[in-house]
Fold this sequence. Notes:
Organism: Mesorhizobium temperatum
Strand content: 35-45%
Keywords: Signal
CATH class: Mainly Beta
CATH topology: outer membrane lipoprotein receptor (LolB), chain A
CATH superfamily: Lipoprotein localisation LolA/LolB/LppX
Mean pLDDT: 82
Low-confidence stretches: 1-36
Shape: globular
Strand order of the largest sheet: 8-9-10-11-12-2-3-4-5-6-7-13
Helix content: 10-25%
Structural class: alpha+beta
Number of strands: 15
Order of helices and strands: EHHEEEEEEHHHEEEEEEEE
Distance between the termini: 7 Å
Number of helices: 5
Protein name: DUF2092 domain-containing protein
CATH architecture: Clam
Radius of gyration: 18 Å
Amino acid sequence: MNQAILKLHFRSRPRSIGIAAISIGLALSVSPSWGQNVIDADADGILKAMTNHLKGLQAFTVDYDTDHEIVDLAGQKLQYSASGSVQASRGDGFHMTRKGPFADVELTFDGKIISLYGKGMNVYAQLDSPGASIDEAVEEFRVSTGLDVAGADFLVTDPYTVLTEGVTSGRLVGDAFVGGVECDHLAFRNDDVDWQIWISKGAQKLPVKYVITTKWVTGAPQYSLRFGNWKAGEVDTRLFSFKPPANAKKLERIDSDEVGELVLEGSK
């Protein structure tokens, strides 16, 4: 059996980012007021307003850019960048693209089947989802591959619960501008990571930037995610159904290796 290896990092979830950050292939300062293990009222209100707005978006599109830091064997930090887009409908599925230094891929979900297609090698793999929701598809992908979908924390039905799981403290840092957008800058901690989020001000509160710092890895590598061009409304649900291109090879399984790379096995 030969292996086709697609190197990509879909990770974005605070409690699981650490394993990807230590790949060799590829802090916030604490003020005294942070000792109470709570999210302050201002930060909590802004985060809830943003996640409630996301929950209300039944169909949307958004573009994203990721920066993934690793610390190599010589102790030097390296940063790998990728870009992509998401089209999602909470009742129908999603279509995602990701183009980076290691792979050009599409990830689709039609309510039943999760399909991953590697364009460069013309290979694909598929997983059965246990249910029709995006939450179930994202979780199945994570469990089966060891990876998270980029921006998964913001695609699920209840983003607030996912984001605040295990949080020991959180605060409003202040105002900021990201890509010309005026934002509220929030900072949070849990036992494994520190994470920050920049949320656009105004009536439509949306995530603009999201940064996760892995505290227990030497060098404290970071994963960052930037969103742009949020658009609510109808999406092309035909993109959610994957039809293999001519001569595409179907692979038997999807796995991640010990450093968080995606491995597609079974190509002939």
